[in-house]
Amino acid sequence: MNVLAICAHPDDAEILCGGTLAKYAARGDKVTIAISTNGEVGSPTLSKPEIAETRRQEAKAAADLIGADLIWLGYPDEFLFDTEKTRLDFIEAMRASGAEVVLTHWPDDLYNPDHTLTGRIANDVAIMTTVPNIVTASPVLKKIPIVYFVDSMAGIGFQPDEYVDITDYIDTKKRMLAAHESQVGDWLQDQYGSNAMEMVEVTSRYRGIQCGVRYAEGFIRAKAYPRNIVGTLLP
Questions:
Q1: Which terminus of the chain, N or C, has fewer Cβ atoms within 10 Å?
Q2: How far is CA 100 from the centre of its chain?
Q3: CA 229 to chain centre
Q4: Which domain holds residue 209?
């Protein structure tokens, strides 16, 4: 199966669904991580071009840990908008990856507008990926991908209706996050006083308690015609 995680910033996929991506990859699925913005404001010291390139390299290193492909959309950090170009780029990311499953931000995650818009655009355009008259570089998909919304930052306001047991992949999730050294050891602590690794540990443990395993990640499937399914496509 082809799985695409399309998230707002470098490190979002690792924080919010890294264990699930590792689990998909381990069972032989093709995993792609698409990042909508370039992370260019995520440093208290480096210039925009410097930190953007650093974050691109960190994202590639994290993806490489599970053999995932990386799609770098490169929109300005904190200034993502819903435009025709943005929609076409998201459609192309889904087509280029052959997405059958899309993991993206919950549109009600109010942590950051890039999160909100990335989730909303990804869900909105999924139905457009099979339309021949909407032309992008890659061929149209044969089937509309199923969209799952990932957890909110720190789990605030998010009530999962599906869980993935990531107990065997929590260490991989942490290694993927650790690849984002400029964020884990610098920006998030400086800006928010936040220990990202601790947040990942606590949130994953909390979701695990909710569903009866050691560590888990939570999801809500986008329930919309004609994209309803029986069962689940989560691993």
A1: N
A2: 15
A3: 21
A4: 2-221
